[in-house]
């Protein structure tokens, strides 16, 4: 037995053993990475809105992240690029985020990152977010893409010019200050509306918090703070305390 072990762990064989171990580790990493970068939806149809047009996906749907960090959706032998616009399940109250997003807690003045392919859904009448590392209920928060999109996690109001619009959870608001447009998807009514010539600040509020979506500014207490746009600089959303 000692002779066999001595032969196995000779200097010459150790080099080969190390090489084999490195190859195994690389293969496992690639395999796990591949699994993380692709999700498949088989039993539910999906939909999203693009420039006000409802796009519906059915059959076996694959969503993947490419080497160039581009999110793509594949369905029925077709393929399309995705931006940060949420993908909605047709039959259940649930969405997929194709890109990394930020959870904003205005009452605390804090932000965290959730990773691409994270999901938000209704569980016991509360919105829960789940990504690769954590599952957490969302209280008094907004999900932000670092650019123009604000995803609503609790019933809220959006006000601008002379308008006040009630929005249900899982709705979103896109504010384009350059084109002076506000695009709103009302999830409860499945209605997408574009408002033009908006020259006032767009404010998102609920009973507790306030966010200026035109200035990317959150208010907390007697203070305010600009939102961090570079999501890569944020730490991951921690587990619920």
Verbal overview:
- The protein is built from 2 helices and 24 strands.
- It is mainly beta and 241 residues long.
- The chain has 2 domains: 2-36; 46-233, no CATH class.
- A 7-stranded antiparallel β-sheet has the order 3-2-7-8-11-12-13, with no helix packed on it.
- A hairpin with a 4-residue loop joins strand 12 and strand 13 (135-137).
- The chain is globular, with a radius of gyration of 23 Å.
- The termini are far apart.
Mind sketching the topology for me?
Layout: H1 2-8, H2 11-36, E1 38-41, E2 46-50, E3 53-57, E4 61-65, E5 71-75, E6 78-82, E7 87-89, E8 94-97, E9 101-105, E10 110-114, E11 118-123, E12 126-130, E13 135-137, E14 142-144, E15 149-152, E16 156-160, E17 163-167, E18 172-176, E19 181-186, E20 191-195, E21 203-205, E22 210-212, E23 217-220, E24 223-226
Antiparallel strand pairs: 1-4, 2-3, 2-7, 4-5, 5-6, 7-8, 8-11, 9-10, 9-14, 11-12, 12-13, 14-15, 15-18, 16-17, 16-21, 18-19, 19-20, 21-22, 22-23, 23-24
In brief, what are we looking at here?
Helix content is 14%, strand content 44%. The chain has helices at 2-8, 11-36; strands at residues 38-41, 46-50, 53-57, 61-65, 71-75, 78-82, 87-89, 94-97, 101-105, 110-114, 118-123, 126-130, 135-137, 142-144, 149-152, 156-160, 163-167, 172-176, 181-186, 191-195, 203-205, 210-212, 217-220, 223-226.
List keywords for this structure.
241 residues; mainly beta; seven-stranded antiparallel sheet; 14% helix; globular
Overall geometry comes to: globular
Tell how many strands the DSSP assignment holds. Answer: 24
Rg, alpha carbons? 23 Å
Main β sheet profile = 7 strands, antiparallel
Overall tally of domains: 2
Report low-confidence residues grouped into runs of 5 or more. Answer: 23-35
Number of helical elements? 2
The end-to-end span amounts to 53 Å
Structural class per helix/strand content?
mainly beta
Strand order of the largest sheet: 3-2-7-8-11-12-13
Question: Mean pLDDT, as a whole number?
Answer: 85
Task: Write down the secondary-structure element order.
Answer: HHEEEEEEEEEEEEEEEEEEEEEEEE
The proportion of residues forming helix, as a percent range, comes to 10-25%
Proportion of beta-strand residues? 35-45%
């Amino acid at each position: 037995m000692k002779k066999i072990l001595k032969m196995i762990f000779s200097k010459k064989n150790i080099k080969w053993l190390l090489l084999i171990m490195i190859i195994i580790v690389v293969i496992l990493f690639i395999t796990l990475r591949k699994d993380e970068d692709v999700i498949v939806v088989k039993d539910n149809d999906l939909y999203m809105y693009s420039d006000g047009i409802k796009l519906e996906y059915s059959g076996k749907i694959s969503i993947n992240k490419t080497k160039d960090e581009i999110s793509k959706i594949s369905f029925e032998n077709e393929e399309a690029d995705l931006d940060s616009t949420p993908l909605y399940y047709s039959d259940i109250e649930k969405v997929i985020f194709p890109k990394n997003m930020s959870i904003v807690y205005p009452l605390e003045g804090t932000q965290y990152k959730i990773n691409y392919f994270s999901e938000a859904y209704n569980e016991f009448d509360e919105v829960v977010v789940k990504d690769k590392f954590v599952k957490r209920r969302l209280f008094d928060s907004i999900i932000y893409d670092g650019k123009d999109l604000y995803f609503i996690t609790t019933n809220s109001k959006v006000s601008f010019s002379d308008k006040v619009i009630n929005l249900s959870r899982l709705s979103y608001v896109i504010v384009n200050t350059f084109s002076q447009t506000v695009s709103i998807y009302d999830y409860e009514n499945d209605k997408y509306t574009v408002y033009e010539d908006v020259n006032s600040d767009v404010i998102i509020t609920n009973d507790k918090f306030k966010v200026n979506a035109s200035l990317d500014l959150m208010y907390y207490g007697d203070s305010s703070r600009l939102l961090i746009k570079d999501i890569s600089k944020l730490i991951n959303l921690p587990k619920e305390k």
